[in-house]
Amino acid sequence: MEPRPLMPEESHIVKVDGKAEENNGKHHTAQMSTHQLIVRRGQSFSIGLKFREYFIPGVSDLLFCTTLGNNPDEIRGTRSVFGIPDTVRRAPNAKAVWKAELPLGQKKSRNVVVKITPPADAPVGVYTMFLSYLGEDKKLGVFPLIFNPWCKEDTVYMANEKKIEEYVLNERGVIYIGSANYIHPMLWDYGQFEDGMIEIALTLLHVTPEYLTDPMKDEAARCDPVYVGRIVSRMINSNQDRGVLQGQWEGPYTGGRAPSHWSGSYPILKHWYRLGGHPVKFGQCWVFAGVMCSVLRTLGIPCRVITNYESAHDSDKNLTIDQYYADYGVQIPAPDSIWNFHVWCEAWMKRPDLSIGNYDGWQVLDATPQELSEGTFQCGPAAVRAVLDGHTDKDYDVPFVFSEVNADCTVYLVKADGSKQAVLTDTTRVGQKISTKSVGSHKRRDVTYLYKHREGSTRERSVFKYAATREYLKDDDEDWEEEEFDDSEDEEPVMVAYNVEMERLDQPKLPKVSVNFEEVSKPVNGKDVELNLVLHSEASEPRSLSINISVVAKNSYGFARFEILSNKQQKTLKPGKDLRVPVVVPFDKYWEKMLDNDVMDVIAIVKDTDDPQEIYMGEYGVVLEDPPFSVKLLGEAFVRRPVFVEMSFKNPVSETLKNCSITLSGSGLVKEEDEISVPDVGPEKRIWVKVCFYPRKAGKKTLMADFNCSVFRDIKKSVPVVVKEPQTSSENARPNTQSV
Fold it and tell me: What phi, psi does 414 have (nearest 5°)?
């Protein structure tokens, strides 16, 4: 049905009112726009029609048509013809049929309000609506239709309103980085309600290889969040296509930004959009996950970001991570690896494609390009329930996710002659403290129990065996015990440390030597790092030990980049007594090598000099805490009025800080990013920077500041900002500009 051009004075339809402000408020899209109509499927919206002549219900018919794409088809659900009265003859297998209604008791009038209801299974995208009336075909308008977690019939329906507030409407998030020893919360600005975000998200769907190959098939498939989620996981990374982010796992980051620079998604997505679909440089796992979460929330799919500490990358898919160390303590590169942490997304949706079993709910979606899935870098959706139960035959990519959280680890010592000795095995190291932001607060919630059963339990081992062999043993099934998991929010401190003791594969002839580390002081970037290696044995006689200690700079993906220091020493371990061996790493030894790396890895290999087969190993990853960076808001904040902020940083080291800059960002506060150049900062000197910004939206916001220089990379600080509408008195609205 193509509209026939008419002169304005000929048209029977004088005016069309999309009632954007009213409809968007009801559809929870008012934060996206109050002038562009943006609606959710499965929920009615109203349009106002003004006719030249009186409209008389029952005498004149209204025939509507909605279309998606250039070749809409009612069989595919991308075209729907419906009317008042609805006497349309449709194909028996027509999908996604829309509906129109008049208010009860509607009388003849020139002004009529029509209620339009899109079906809960309609494909998402940009629709065009037409009206046929008295022989005239008129284009009423164009509008986006997105998923609806408030609608029970929608496959992304979420019953808990507080969770919808968190997983769809909250622009401020927390992504956990660091290591299992040092869990560090990093604020992330999702920015799903920033200007143009809905257009950016829908543009992303229009540049996929699937759309470019077969647009009709692709548009029809967008009725399913399983399909959309998988497509988005592909398009957030760039793999010789028009993906958003280019990954790079180590510096230098020439031609782009270091992944640690980013504090939010909107500057990345806006830059990608402005570049016409060329990738933004550079991203790593937490950046990929943060950007994907923003896109999914924009499209209406509930989403949260998950961090898995000690995350396995099982390249040969045998559910075992093989690691190799030289006998002097340095790790040897290998195809398998264990990352300090890895970050992915979970999206909430039903899984009707998995007919057997209950796999609805949270689904893993991972945009970080790691392993190929169906020929491209995409991952998921993998049902978290399938991961928990070891159902590695379920779509999509469940085996890979299962190995990330539950692979076993075997450590081999490589001797000088090239021979290998398996010295350690660990069935509990992989998949530690799986974390996400709590609903309604910035507290960390541990969700490890959703991914795997209690470590070491009969059930956990049986699930592992089933995942690896696809066979349950009858005895295993009978030995299972019901487990109770604590679903409460985790309130432990931000920085935690613990030691993991790894067991020998063979039975030692002598009582074993325990190998642990303890911190002498909190490790802070800019200061010497001080640890103790603590050895203990219950042997009845003193033991002569050869101790190799090496310290290396590792990136977050577990790869040793630089050796910082190493030493070898002989010690005597007395029976039943702790032996403490100091480990000191001076700042001037580590700072350059740690500049673009994440973890200072301390490895100790301990040998009994009387029995060289008695070998023990301990490993401790140190994540340096940033030196203090101060950000202070000066006065109150009002929309479109200058707000001043003062920032200060004291150089704690003897090096002069060069190439200094501060980047400000924050949804509703700063448009994309605002970068300020800062003069060099001499040793032990403090610098103050005072700038202003102009808030664009009222409400609770967060200003993000990033300090970067030649010695310290991307020190982040945030400050909450409550933005008010301007008062009538300009005097009252003026912020306090007095310097502190």
Answer: -100, 120
Question: At 573, is the secondary structure helix, strand, or coil?
Answer: strand
pTM score over 0.85: yes
| Phi, psi dihedral angles at 259 (to 5 degrees) | -55, -35
CA distances in angstroms from 294 to 120, 195, 267, listed in the order given: 22, 13, 12
Please state the rounded mean pLDDT for residues 33-44.
96
| DSSP H or E run through 83 | strand 79-84
510, 469: one domain: no
CB atoms under 10 Å from CB of 735, counted, come to 17
* Structural tokens at position 471: 């066979």
User: What sign has the CA pseudo-torsion 394, 397, 403, 405?
Assistant: negative
Helix (H) and strand (E) counts for the chain?
A: 15, 39
Q: Which of 65, 189, 261, 285 is the catalytic position? A: 285
Express each pLDDT in 337-374 by its tens digit.
899 999 999 999 999 999 776 899 999 999 999 888 88
Residue 293 annotated among the catalytic residues of the structure: no
Peptide bond into 176 cis (omega under 30): no
Q: Where in the sequence is the domain holding 104, given as residue range(s)?
A: 8-146
Assigned domain for 265 exists: yes
- The answer to the question of residue 197 being in a domain is yes
Is 285 assigned a catalytic role?
A: yes
- Using left for φ > 0, alpha for ψ between -120 and 50, and beta otherwise, residue 677 falls in beta
Among 366, 408, 426, 598, the active-site one is 366
Burial state string for 358-370 with b = 16 or more CB within 10 A and e = fewer than 16: ebbbbbbbbbbbb
Catalytic residue among 28, 342, 391, 453: 342
Residue carrying structure tokens 């029970």: 152
> How far is Cα 675 from Cα 662, in angstroms, rounded to an integer?
6
- Is residue 598 among the annotated active site residues? no
Collapsed DSSP state (helix, strand, coil) of residue 622:
strand
